[in-house]
Amino acid sequence: MTGETQHNLRGDYSRMRPDYTVDQEWGGYGEDAHDLWRRLYRRQESLVARYACDPFMEALAHLDFGQDIPRFTDVNAKLRAATRWELVAVPGLVPDLVFFEHLANRRFPVTVWIRKPEEFDYIVEPDIFHDFFGHVPMLFNPVFADYMQSYGRGGIKAHELGAIEMLSRLYWYTVEFGLIETPRGLRTYGAGILSSGGEISYCVESPEPNRIGFDLLRIMRTNYKIDTYQETYFVIRDFEQLFEATAPDFTPYYDELRGREPHAPSAVLATDKVYQRGIAPQRAA
Ligand code: PHE
Ligand code: CO
């Protein structure tokens, strides 16, 4: 998640380097922290088996990090070998431009602190469980990994163009809350869902939310809610679709969208391809 809010941030920002990175200080986690990690992991493990996309499940098995809070240095050996990405430790949310610079250089910032036990089911700010469990397995997929780097480069450009709000909606509706079609029905690749105990079944099973075919400009024009389950999810066919749709220069898209009223999170438009009960809409042959 990008750091729109710079007030009241949790985490110790006093010892960070200029790029906001810190040492993970793995030895500093207590047994209570590791125990909380194990409980979060165990709860989520059974849920992702039913609702996560295959690349996530494959990476999860390969990583096998359910025992203790993972050491980033251990994970980096595997991640570098797979997709040339690496993890960097950060105190918490970082400013947008800092975040984009890391992604553009294939570095994924992971928060070092873990939530409190009473935040087991719900947490507002991303902690190590969200950042790690939700985001890191997807970085093992080569196409998604390239998409994340492109997003970082695009973020640096959007910053110059004053278009971060539009671009952030794309991150929200893909990297955090994206759904994907599979032969076994809809699955998720979004970290906000993958690390959530409740939304992970809701996003696939509930009759309430809209599930709409991926549409880049539509997404960049759609507001989102950060404190409830999503009212709308966007569905990709595969990661190639995501990568290819976002390859063009966004400058003319931003020009077109600027000044237009954003769509509400709950909006359904005449042009939307709406999935009924998880079934893909008919497409022209
Ligand atoms: N192609 C986008 C641009 O020119 C960059 C981008 C790539 C943004 C992938 C998001 C995801 O701004
Ligand atoms: Co996130």
Describe the structure.
With 285 residues, the protein is of the alpha/beta class. It is built from twelve helices and six strands. It has helices spanning 31-51, 54-63, 72-83, 96-104, 128-135, 142-161, 164-176, 191-194, 199-205, 216-220, 239-245, 251-257, and strands spanning 86-90, 107-111, 179-182, 185-188, 210-213, 232-236. The strands form two sheets. It has a four-stranded mixed beta sheet with strand order 4-3-6-5. α4 (96-104) links the parallel β1 and β2 (107-111). The longest helix has 21 residues, at 31-51. The N and C termini lie far apart (38 Å). Bound molecules: phenylalanine and cobalt (II) ion. Phenylalanine is lined by residues 147, 150-151, 153-154, 157, 170, 246-250.
Explain briefly what this protein structure is.
The protein is an alpha/beta fold. It is 43% helix and 9% strand.
Output the helix-strand order: HHHEHEHHHEEHHEHEHH
Q: Work out the strand percent.
A: 5-15%
Shape summary: globular
Number of helices: 12
Which residues form runs of ≥5 with pLDDT under 50?
Answer: 1-6
Short descriptors:
two-stranded parallel ribbon; binds phenylalanine; 4-stranded mixed β-sheet; 285 residues; binds cobalt (II) ion; single chain; alpha/beta; disordered N terminus
